[in-house]
Amino acid sequence: MLQNYKKSKEGQKGFTIVELLIVIVVIAILAAITIVAYNGVTTSARSSKAKQNAQNVQSVAEAYNAEQGRYPGTITELSTGGTAAKIPSGMTVLRGPAAPTGATAGVSAWTASTFSGLTPVALTATNGETNVTYSIAGTAGASTGGVIAYWDFGTGSALNFIYVGSATGTTVLTQPAA
Q1: 71 lies in a domain?
Q2: What's the confidence (pLDDT) of residue 105?
Q3: Is residue 82 part of a domain?
Q4: What residues contact residue 96 under an 8 Å CB cut-off, 6+ apart?
């Protein structure tokens, strides 16, 4: 029986179709695992970069407060920073959202807890790595703090916040001047 099998295999070289299919399935499984792992690492890296940018803005705002005795009240003040700290190149600080729908005319007050319902929210997955928004507590000339919002790539839609000065999640915030 074994001799007949050996004789039937003489002159035949290569792999059977079943062996080839098994190899293809194993390669496909390994490729799928690699793609999933890569996507997770990429999302984590983008989230880390966005958070680091927000922390850089926080450092600039705190340094500005240490030098001026108040927090930056405009985007220009924040962008130029004080003498001790500057916004890193390649990063953009955008104005926080305008007044919520139904707000009293001329009033652009809101809290961080209502941020996601405000328009325009300038942060998206497209620009969230290099852009953050800044809103102030108080008035432009006497800001007591603010909130920095950055994109959360983990959820793909939510925003995270870093507070500076006296600002909290319930602090009434305003849109800073450019």
Answers
A1: yes
A2: 37
A3: yes
A4: 115, 133, 134, 135, 136, 147, 149, 173, 175, 176
* Closest to 96 (Cα-Cα) out of 27, 47, 167: 167
In sequence order, the β-bridge partners of residue 148 are 134, 162
Which domain does 109 fall in, by range?
Answer: 17-174
Write down the pTM of the prediction. 0.71
Q: How far apart, in whole angstroms, are the C-alpha atoms of residue 109 and residue 147?
A: 13
Question: What does the block give as tokens for 94?
Answer: 């955008």
Q: pLDDT tens-digit profile of 96-143?
A: 875 555 544 334 456 555 565 554 567 777 787 888 888 888 777 888
Pairing of strands 159-165, 145-151: antiparallel
The type of residue at 138 is G
Report pLDDT digits (tens) over 18-55.
999 999 999 999 999 988 878 778 888 888 888 898 89
Residue 43 falls inside a structural domain: yes
Q: Which of 118, 167, 127 is nearest to 147 (CA)?
A: 167
Q: Output phi, psi for 120, to 5 deg.
A: -85, 135
DSSP type of residue 165: E
Q: Which tokens go with 156?
A: 């793909």
Q: How many domains does one find in the chain?
A: 1
